[in-house]
Amino acid sequence: SGLKEVEAMTEGVEKEKRLDALRFQKLQAEQWSLGCELEADRERSLKWQSVYRSVREGAKKLGEAEGYQLVVIDDSKIEIQTQRAQNSPPLETQAKGQIAQLRVLYADRTIDVTDKLIVQLNNKRSSSVTPASSSATTATKPTK
Question: Are residues 86 and 125 in the same domain?
Fold first, then answer.
């Protein structure tokens, strides 16, 4: 029985019982939906963690094979971006948070190994995972 049918009933214990049952069904549906959203979020998180582990492992193998001591993502060209929105943190907080995440201030004598790393990962990966094709991966060879 639907909500309209229950609303049409005269006031009394039976109407309250049926309204409670409808409210409970609605709550169960909301909880189920939330559970599905949380599970989907968990699955996406696990996927990204797997992609990251593959990229990290691939960078290690490439570095060892090519004689690089360090392979980094060159984030020196990333500009700080802030925005005013209704629920956004203050601009200062946004800027400080972004700055705290950056690691490379300047990169000289870098070798872009992105294409090599992508080829290596594509040769190894399963058909369901596509690595990012950013051109920000750099490596440095030891200087003497």
Answer: no
DSSP state of 71: E
Contact by Cβ (8 Å): 22, 3: yes
Find out whether 24 and 36 touch, Cβ atoms under 8 Å.
no
DSSP reduced 3-state for 132 = coil
Give dist(CA 54, CA 48) in Å, integer. Answer: 10
Q: Are residues 14 and 65 in the same domain?
A: yes
CA max distance for the chain: 91
pTM: 0.61
Tens of pLDDT along the chain (144 residues) come to: 588 888 888 888 898 998 999 999 999 999 999 999 999 999 999 999 999 999 999 999 999 999 999 898 888 889 999 999 999 999 999 999 999 998 888 877 667 888 899 999 999 875 445 555 555 566 666 554
